[in-house]
Amino acid sequence: MEQQDIFVTAIGTDSGKTVASAIIAQALGAAYWKPVQSGLPRDADCVAALVSHPAFEVMPSAYELQMPASPHASAAAEGVEIRLENITRPQTTKPLVIEGAGGVLVPLNRQHFVIDIALRLAVPVVLVSNLYLGSINHTLLSYEALKARRVPVLGIIFNGEPNPQSEDIILHHTGYKKLLHILPETKIDRACIRRYAEEFRKNAYELIGER
Ligand SMILES: Nc1ncnc2c1ncn2[C@@H]1O[C@H](COP(=O)(O)OP(=O)(O)OP(=O)(O)O)[C@@H](O)[C@H]1O
Ligand SMILES: C[C@H](N)[C@H](N)CCCCCC(=O)O
Ligand SMILES: [Mg+2]
Asked: What is the pLDDT of residues 105-151, one digit of tens each?
């Protein structure tokens, strides 16, 4: 079967993965799944409030932790051990947008990292890179970690105030396709998500085909 799911990861936490996931889910008519949630409010509730395509649905998290911390630490605090083998794709015929937690190498436990979920499920990733001073280094380190693990990367989404010098050097070193640039928005609502989804569909047409 053709692979249609997309795993959204980032160069860190608060990078814009949830916003990007809503945009991609809207663009693809996809369902949303956050396998490991740590902290409230749940990203799934945020995405549900932003996506407006009629077939949208949220799949239940494999782990839902209250503490807003690294999943390995939230799990320990709540007497839970996150086991990679318990993270299995929910049954749905729709493509899934799967959101990680924090960045690529955020630990789930003492062995596994967030990116191991994408590898286990054999789902290609989109990397969200928010532009701040220091983000070039964080983006290139994420690129190196993805490359070392042979994770297929569909492309990059920049988030924040445009910075042509940063974007240019990141694209030069990674060779990633730029799928979208999310600008700083005063209000992120359904209309805003629909607008970016249209742009994403155009930019990513050859990746997502006739979905
Ligand atoms: N381009 C933007 N304009 C305005 N607000 C934004 C933008 N991108 C992200 N935000 C806001 O910044 C905050 C962090 O973004 P978001 O929740 O998408 O990060 P995240 O990468 O999903 O974080 P986490 O690691 O907790 O899942 C949210 O309140 C979100 O609405
Ligand atoms: C609580 C936060 N919003 C995310 N759910 C988890 C972020 C983990 C980051 C861990 C780290 O890189 O130090
Ligand atoms: Mg999020």
From this structure: 999 999 999 999 999 999 999 999 999 999 999 999 999 999 999 99
Amino acid at 157: I
Find the distance separating the first CA and the last CA of the chain, reported in whole Å: 14
Scored b (16 or more CB within 10 A) or e, 10-44 reads: bbbeebbbbbbbbbbbbbbebbbbbbbbbbeeebb
Residues 81-110 have pLDDT tens digits of 999 999 999 999 999 999 999 999 999 999
Q: Which atom, in ligand 2's list, is nearest to the CA of 102?
A: 7
Domains and CATH numbers, the chain: 6-206 (3.40.50.300)
Q: What's 84's DSSP letter?
A: G
Handedness of CA 83, 88, 142, 25 (dihedral sign): negative
Residue 34 a catalytic site member: yes
Q: Could you give the CA distance from residue 131 to residue 67 in angstroms, rounded to a whole number? A: 27
| Catalytic choice (34, 147, 177, 187) | 34
